[in-house]
Amino acid sequence: MILIGLKLSVVLVLLFGLTRHSVDGICSVEHCTDSKRCVLSDDQRRCKCAMGYYSDQCDKNAHIKVMCGRDYIAIRAVEDFFKYHNVPLESLHLPNKSCGAQREVIDDVPFYISRISKDKYVTCGGKPLEKNLTHISYTLSLLSDPQVSGNIIRDPVIKMAYTCVYPYMRRVSLPFPVVPFSSEKVMRVDELDATIQMMLYTDHTYTKAFSSAPTIELRDKVYVEVTVTEPADFFLLRVNECWATPSPQPNTTEGSVHTLLLNGCVNDRTVSFLNASTGQSGHNGESSTVRYSFDMFRFTAEPHNLYLHCTVQLCEPDDHKSCTPNCNSISKREAVRADPVQGLLSYGPIKIEIPERSLSSILMTVVLPVACVWTVGFFLIILITVAKAGSRRLAQMED
């Protein structure tokens, strides 16, 4: 198996393998000295070129390459390889002869290539899909028709059997309901099932999830958990982006948007990751569960309720590189693969609790102070009046 990377953040990588290749090339026994290029028979009287090589001395590389794209499967080899075996382009095809090969020139080198979309896999004669807990396999064969001369066939028939092995989960799209206790949904993806869940918890212990739309005060901590529930503890999970909107639509162009996580990195100063095992400070993409918290806020415009949206990426257990965001880069955009394939989770509404003052509080803070001012003023007037009356009476007595 050879590991290659696709332009995805679907976090994701692809596996592909060339499982069988049987071409009986003409091989010169006296020159068969390199076991990597040619293989001798048990009686040492015959030899054939090893996979990927050809010519009488097996010293030419056919540059056979299998390409496993997100939506296509392909195999190619240099044109000279087929000409050496007297195999014309029009005789090459997949098990269904309507799925032929084409000639392409790449970097001034001509190739014969067979490329089909995954939608045509069954139509072109692909073998039944093989799948297990971790992978799904697509297997095809590129064949050549025998070249008949009169009533004999002298040239070998080419058969290249190749397999693309894709990770269990390649694409997720999870339109989760807004009520947390039913926020789990199973999606069928490439004939396989996977489950991801996003929930909010009442405190830092992550022991009690909200059982209905939560109401949280401004500046209080919001505790978020995103986890792969099935299969449990297998994949690595990376949360790529999280943002809040005042409406349920994640891609709304109306109203405000506040970004909490960007390219797997903190984009809000109040955000902090927590380790799911220890409860201490943690990192994004280190396990099948991602936990983080942020301080509650609200938008200036109505409505004040929030909806939280996150895009996620699954990685194989040993693929820590794809799931670990590079948050030290000057440009965070450089840390993400191009054209990421991601799943979307949405949660909400999250209601903002704005304390309302009671009537008694208003009376205490507004009416009472005013009443006190009036009372003090009244007594001052009385004192002034009494003082003036006393002064007049004193003057009269002196006269």
From TrEMBL:
Signal peptide interval: 1-25
One term under GO cellular component: side of membrane
Xref: SMART domains: ZP
Record keywords: Disulfide bond, Glycoprotein, Membrane, Secreted, Signal, Transmembrane, Transmembrane helix
The keyword Disulfide bond is annotated on this UniProt entry: yes
Domain ZP: 67-334
Subcellular location: Secreted
InterPro entries given in the database record: EGF, ZP-C, ZP-C_dom, ZP_dom, ZP_dom_CS
Residues passing through the membrane, by range: 362-387
PANTHER family: ENDOGLIN/TGF-BETA RECEPTOR TYPE III, UROMODULIN
Protein name, per record: Zona pellucida glycoprotein d
Organism of this sequence: Seriola lalandi dorsalis
